[in-house]
UniProtKB/TrEMBL annotation:
Keyword S-adenosyl-L-methionine: no
Organism: Cinchona calisaya
InterPro entries the record matches: DYW_dom (IPR032867), E2_motif (IPR046849), E_motif (IPR046848), PPR_At4g14850-like_plant (IPR046960), PPR_rpt (IPR002885), TPR-like_helical_dom_sf (IPR011990)
Protein name: DYW domain-containing protein
NCBIfam families referenced in this protein's UniProt entry, alphabetically: PPR
Family: Belongs to the PPR family. PCMP-H subfamily.
Keyword Repeat: yes
PPR repeat boundaries on the chain: 137-171, 238-272, 339-373, 440-474, 475-509
UniProt superkingdom: Eukaryota
Record domain DYW: where: 654-746
Length: 746
DNA sequence: GTAGGGTTAG
């Protein structure tokens, strides 16, 4: 009788689900009576298996005895079981037991169950369990919303938030922090504002957790002013409020503002914890302030936070971003190297700071150590390949992606398109574009920019129309791609029209757009018009705008306007060698040798030297760099023989070297150097002797193509019957049959 | 049962 009574206490839900009367259940109880209770749960038939297999820790006799003696406390029992769970099979076993003992509608246990399932990454399972629960109340909704939000499944989190309101469950102060996080994760400020209104409607506006969520939402979405207003109204500002504000500024490219807020925080005697230091480090690294970054590093050690993994990763990132990649590598080596984000920091640090080759090496190293890369790792490795510029390396990367889980990752595909375009093959970029299933504005822009880089403006414009018919709205970068494409192809009319259509798409033209237009007008000889345009611009002209005007003045030998542009450049960007060289080139083209000398003095005064030119060529997957007059290569003799032969052929074909380039080069103190061994020519000669006939030569230069080499390369492509692809500091040139894809317009 | 942090495409 005692047994019956105890069981009855646990059984009521089953009596609804089961068509048999209670006595008949007992008649049917075999040697394993509990098994029978599994069946009422139609969605969880698999639980029979878990029930019949040995349960996790349940001692059935102990359990029965506990029931008999009325001391069984299911809530604490299952809380502790769930806390010990580390695998889905544990969840299955607990779940089976809950059904077996009729605890499947115990809100407390199910809330815990959902929470644990989510933290084990079994969110779909958690959702199914949630769906089985009759009329879930706010705790269960919160647990599920939290699960989605903490796994960056923001859309699902917001869907659940909407659904809970449809069934008239009121959100509470535990709901909003997660919903607000989801809004900021989606950058959905407008929706966030609606949620903000709901906060007031439910009278939760003075809850500090909710307030911090709001500060974080507005700050992370770039609405710093709004964040500040809420922040200043807070009655109680804790370290989380400060961190929300600081990280918001840091993430929105406002490092100095972030640091100012941090200063305020220190003034109000709030003690920093290690989490806030992560954002402070980010701010210092974005501001490029290595010295202050180092100070934070020493504070970290003083405060005893040096073993916090995430903080160490932030420190590594700081050194890497500030160009101290070798210091970063030391920190990297000190850690056990299992964390993917740590690898990402190091790979992108190498890739962006002139060690692209090392970045690729590190990625391969990671593969051999069986550490699973994520999408960011792959994107960083692809970026590294783009910087290396080796097409063979690029193909390897593409092959890797094609056979990996990242094949349909939109960001990875965008990076691949960019990589192929930068490695000289817009055709392969197009292949990636064609196979991409998902295409957003960034992916479309990548291929448009790619065509622009290669001077194929028609393709770029066609794709622009295709993009619009696919229902994708262009953005500011799309237009930069289109305008540079027009520049590189000399499509003045199209460029002009495109520029004037920017505002039709609700896009405010930025410096770069104006610079493109100045470039376009300037190159086509409309110098006065370009100057007029600069005068009438609604924004203050920047370095790139005056730079565009100066280089146009050089082409058309407009000295007075060029001098004016150069003056503006020298005041805005005094230490950039490029501007001085441009002005010197302008004087040289106008045969004003006095001017050339004047610039040289100016450069000496500032301690500036001309950047040395070099060219790289890829042969059999290996990159080789040549400097002007380089004789360091083991096959140097052969290279110079080939060079002489090329020169002879050029002369026979009637090639006349451009005297101006010669003069100004000599004037730039490269006295012993004649035209024929510009680094570009050396690379071509090496390519010719080390590859089979007909192979395309791929060359990368650090400077812009010089007039003389450009016309020589055109002719060489015809004489030796090779396609030669040259990437200069600005764009690609495809030389074939005596012509260049740029149409001599660069 | 709650909130803040590290890597990141054009």
């Amino acid at each position: 009788m005692a047994l019956n009574q105890s069981l009855f206490r646990l059984l009521p839900p089953l009596s609804f689900l089961f068509p048999y009367s209670i006595p008949s259940i007992f008649q049917r109880l075999g040697p394993n009576p509990l098994k029978l209770f599994i069946f009422p749960a139609p969605k969880f038939k698999f639980l029979t298996y878990y029930y019949s297999s040995l349960p996790l820790t349940l001692d059935r006799n102990l359990y029965n005895n506990n029931i008999l003696h009325n001391v069984f406390e299911p809530e604490s029992h299952y809380t502790s079981l769930l806390e010990k769970s580390t695998h889905k099979t544990h969840l299955n076993q607990v779940h089976a037991q809950l059904y077996a003992f009729g605890l499947q509608n115990n809100g407390f246990i199910i809330t815990k169950f959902i929470h644990v399932s989510c933290s084990l990454g079994e969110i779909n399972y958690a959702h199914k369990v949630f769906d089985e629960f009759p009329n879930p109340y706010v705790f269960l909704w919160n647990a599920l919303i939290r699960g989605y939000s903490s796994h960056n499944m923001f859309i699902e989190a917001i869907e659940m938030y909407n659904k809970m309101q449809e069934v008239y469950v009121s959100p509470d102060c535990f709901t909003f922090p997660h919903v607000l996080k989801a809004c900021s994760g989606l950058s959905a400020v407008e929706f966030g504002k609606a949620v903000h209104a709901q906060v007031f409607r439910h009278g939760l506006e003075s809850d500090v957790f909710v307030q911090n969520g709001l500060v974080s939402l507005y700050a992370r979405c770039g609405k710093i002013e709004m964040a500040r207003i809420i922040f200043h109204q807070l009655d109680e500002r804790n370290i989380v409020s400060w961190t929300s504000m600081i990280s918001g500024c840091a993430q929105n490219a406002l490092p100095s503002e972030a640091l100012r807020v941090f200063g305020e925080m220190r003034q109000s005697n709030v003690k920093p914890d290690w989490i806030v230091l992560v954002s402070v480090l980010r701010a210092y690294s974005d501001a490029g302030d290595l010295e202050q970054g180092k100070c934070v590093h020493s504070s970290v050690i003083k405060m005893g936070f040096e073993f916090e993994l995430d903080l160490r990763i932030a420190l590594t990132a700081m050194y890497a971003k500030c160009g101290q990649v070798m210091v970063a590598k030391i920190l990297f080596n000190e850690m056990d190297g299992q964390d993917v984000i740590l690898w990402n920091v190091m790979i992108s640090g190498f890739a962006k700071n002139g060690h692209a080759g090392k970045a690729v090496e590190l990625f391969k190293n990671m593969m051999t150590r069986n550490i699973r890369p994520d999408s960011v790792t792959v994107q960083s490795a692809i970026l590294a390949c783009a910087h290396v510029g080796s097409l063979e390396q690029a193909r390897w990367m593409d092959d890797y992606v094609y056979h990996s889980e990242f094949r349909d990752d939109i960001c990875v595909n965008t990076a691949l398109i960019d990589m192929f375009a930068k490695c000289g093959s817009v055709e392969l970029a197009r292949k990636v574009f064609d196979r991409a299933i998902d295409r957003d504005v960034v992916l479309w822009s990548a291929i448009i920019v790619g065509y622009g880089l290669h001077g194929q403006a028609r393709e770029a414009i066609d794709l622009f129309y295709a993009m619009k018919s696919a229902g994708v709205q262009p953005n500011d970068v799309t237009f930069i791609g289109l305008l540079t494409a027009c520049n590189h192809s000399g499509l003045v009319k199209e460029g002009w029209e495109l520029f004037h259509s920017i505002r039709d798409y609700d896009i405010e033209p930025r410096h770069q757009h104006y610079a493109c237009l100045v470039d376009l007008l300037g190159r086509s000889g409309h110098l006065e018009k370009a100057y007029d345009f600069i005068q009438k611009m609604p924004i203050e002209p920047s370095v790139s705008i005056w730079g565009a005007l100066l280089s146009a003045c050089k082409i058309f030998r407009h000295v007075t306007l060029g001098e004016y542009a150069a003056e503006r450049l020298f005041s805005l960007d005094p230490m950039n060698t490029g501007h001085y060289v441009q002005l010197s080139n302008l004087y040289a083209s106008a045969r004003m040798w006095g001017g050339v000398a004047k610039v040289r003095v100016l450069m000496k005064e500032k301690g500036l030297t001309k950047d040395l030119g070099y060219s790289m060529i890829e042969v059999n997957g290996k990159l080789l760099a040549f400097r002007m007059g380089d004789k360091s290569h083991p096959r140097s003799e052969e290279i110079y023989q080939e060079l002489e032969m090329l020169d002879r052929k050029l002369l026979e074909a009637g090639f006349v070297p451009d005297a101006e380039s010669a003069l100004h080069d000599l004037d730039m103190e490269d006295k012993e150097v004649s035209l024929c061994n510009h680094s570009e020519r050396l690379a071509i000669a090496y390519g010719l002797i080390s590859t089979p006939a007909g192979t395309t030569l791929r060359i990368t230069k650090n400077l812009r193509a010089c007039v003389n080499c450009h016309s020589a390369t055109k002719l060489i492509s015809k004489l030796v019957n090779r396609e030669i692809v040259v990437r200069d500091a600005n764009r690609f040139h495809h030389f074939k049959d005596g012509f260049c894809s740029c149409g001599d317009f660069w």
